[in-house]
Amino acid sequence: MILRLKIWRLPVLLIGVASIACASSALASRSPRIGIVTQQPSSADQVTVPLSNPSSPGLIDVSLVQGSITVRGTNRKDVLVSARPETDSDRRNHHYDPDSEGLRRIPQTAGFRITEDANHVKVSSDSPNRSITFEIEVPSRTNLKLHTVNGGDILVENVEGELMVSNTNGGITLNNVSGSVMAGTTNGSVRATLARVTAQKEMAFTSLNGTVDVTLPPTTKANLRLRSDNGDVYSDFDVQLAPSAPVVQENNSSNGRYRISRNRSIVGVINGGGPEFELRTFNSNVYVRKGK
C-alpha cells in the first residue's frame, strides 16, 4: 500500500481537507488505511498515517531545510504527524519589512508532504524557504532517519530502534531511547540518554561546535573512542585505557624523510569491551555518564 498526502497552503488546504474527508467516508469500506487530516485551532495540521504492517517496526524519514523535529514513542499502532508553520515570534527573527507597518500578518498553514510505502513513512516540507515544526507520535518500536539544516532542534523521546539523526545549525536531544544511535550536528550540542543498547552495534555521537553528553546503561560493553580538540573528556565509567603508540610513516625515497603522527583520540574499554562507540567534538567537552 502506498499512501501519498500533500497539504498545500491556505487557499487549497480547505479544499484538500474536505476532499480527503469525503474520500475517507466514501472509501472507508474499501481502504481502511487512508490518512485523515484535521486542522487544529492552533493553526497546526494533524495527519494520521496508518502503517502497512503495524506488527513490524516502521521507518520514519523526515528531511527539512528549515524547521525543527520532535518524535515521541507511544503505544499507538499508527503515526500521528502534527505540522505547525512558523509563528509571529519566529518571523520577528527575520528581516524587518517596513511595508507591513500597521498591518496584521495572516498566518499561512504549513505545506508538507507525506508518503507511506511498506512501513516507510517519508515526511517533508513543500518549500525549503519556509520554516515548519513537525511533532510526530510513533509506535515505541520505530526506526528513525531525521535531518534538518536551519532554524530548529531535533528531539526524540521514548523510541526504540535504529536512530539516525543529523542537524546542521541546531542541537540534538535523545531522551530515554533504546537501540543504536548515529547522531551528529555541526553547530549545536548532542545530548543522549539511553535506556538500553543493541548488542554488537556501533554508535557515534559527534559535534563540531557543541557539547557531546551521553548517558549509557551501567552494564554497557563497549570500546570507546573519545576526543575533544579544544575541550576535555569526562566519565564516571571505569574506562580501561588502551596503550597507544605514535604511527611512523617511512619514506623510502632518496631524501630519507619519514613522518610520525599520533591520534589524539582516547581509546578505552568499559565492562570488558564491545562494539566501538565514538564520542567526538571540536570546540567543547565530551561527557560519558553511567546511567542509574
Give the SSE map.
Layout lengths: L1 E6 L2 H17 L9 E4 L5 E5 L8 E6 L3 E8 L4 E7 L2 H5 L19 E6 L2 E6 L6 E8 L2 E7 L5 E4 L2 E8 L4 E14 L4 E8 L5 E5 L4 E5 L5 E7 L4 E3 L4 E2 L5 E4 L7 E4 L4 E5 L5 E6 L4 E5 L2
Parallel strand pairs: 4-8, 4-10, 5-9, 5-11, 10-12, 11-13, 12-13, 13-14, 13-15, 14-16, 15-23, 16-24, 17-23, 18-24
Antiparallel strand pairs: 1-7, 2-3, 3-6, 6-9, 7-8, 17-22, 19-22, 20-21
Total number of strands: 24
Average pLDDT confidence is 83
Which word captures the global form? Answer: globular
Uncertain runs with pLDDT below 50, 5 residues or more?
A: 8-42
Kindly state the percentage of residues in helix.
under 10%
Notes on the protein architecture:
With 292 residues, this protein is mostly beta strands. It has a domain at 1-62 and 74-89 and 103-138. Helices cover 8% and strands 49% of the residues. The chain contains two helices and 24 strands. It has helices spanning 10-26, 88-92; strands at residues 2-7, 36-39, 45-49, 58-63, 67-74, 79-85, 112-117, 120-125, 132-139, 142-148, 154-157, 160-167, 172-185, 190-197, 203-207, 212-216, 222-228, 233-235, 240-241, 247-250, 258-261, 266-270, 276-281, 286-290. The strands form two sheets. It has a 22-stranded mixed sheet that branches. β2 and β3 (45-49) form a beta hairpin. The protein is globular. The two termini are 43 Å apart. Mean pLDDT is 83; it is low at 8-42.
